[in-house]
Each structure stands twice: as C-alpha cells, then as structure tokens.
Amino acid sequence: MKRFIAFIVTGGLLFLIASGASAQEGPPKATVHGVTDTYFGQKIVDPYRWMEDNKSPEMTAWMKAQADYARTYLDHLPLRTQLLKRFEELSETGVRVSGVQRARSPALRARWL
Fold first, then answer.
1. Dihedrals φ, ψ of 112, to 5°?
2. Does a structural domain hold residue 80?
3. pLDDT, tens only, 4-33
4. Which structural domain, as residue segments, surrounds residue 44?
5. How far apart are the first and last CA of the chain?
6. Cα–Cα distance between 103 and 113 in angstroms, integer?
C-alpha cells in the first residue's frame, strides 16, 4: 500500500511539473477544419474530424510534432532520472493475491467447476 501511495504521489508530482511547463510553451496547435453535418434537423460542427484519418499527411505531421514536443520536454525534466529509477523499482514489486475465499455453497461450487 505504501508503494502504491508513493507511486501516486510521484505521478502527481510529474503531472504538476508537466502542467507548469505547458503554460510556458504550448504544444503544437491542431488546425481547425469546420465540417458541419445535420442529424435530425440539428446542425453539428466537428472542427477536428480530420483527426479521424490516422494516415493523412496532416495528422501524421501533427502527431510527430506532438511527440517531438513531449520528448523534448520530458528529456529536460530535472528529476527525470530519479523518477524513472523509482518507477522501475515500483514496477518490480511482484504480484500478491490475498483475501481468496473458497465457495461453501454447492450451487456456487458447481458454477465454478
């Protein structure tokens, strides 16, 4: 339980650091292409429909720009090495199962057999 709490606290710290940097320099902006559809007489505008096509050159370029921005930012975090080391320590804790109970009812036992 203590490791889980430490993991959550560390993740929260990483989030706060990341959110502080996004205020300084923003990630690449997504372009807006207004597409309007009419459903049951109601007009619906979808400005980001172009993002549904994963293979379009525009979407590929935008995703690459996002990935480059994120990589540049994450590589410059002051505590990045320590955080990665701690994440590795926490992820190698193993699996523990507790609280397993055997069904006493014949009806329940038959369902599991």
1. -85, -10
2. yes
3. 565 565 666 556 555 554 444 789 999 999
4. 2-90
5. 33
6. 11
| Distance from C-alpha of 76 to C-alpha of 72, rounded to nearest angstrom | 7
Tell me how crowded residue 30 is: count the other CB atoms within 10 A of its CB.
15
Whole-number Å distance between alpha carbons of 30 and 18:
20
Residue from 5, 106, 24, 25 nearest 65 by CA: 25
Q: How many separate helices (H) and strands (E) can be counted in the chain? A: 4, 2
Tokens 């690449």: give the residue.
28
The reply to whether the predicted model has a pTM over 0.70 is: no
The number of angstroms, rounded, from the C-alpha of 100 to the middle of its chain's C-alpha atoms is: 31
In a domain, 24, yes or no: yes
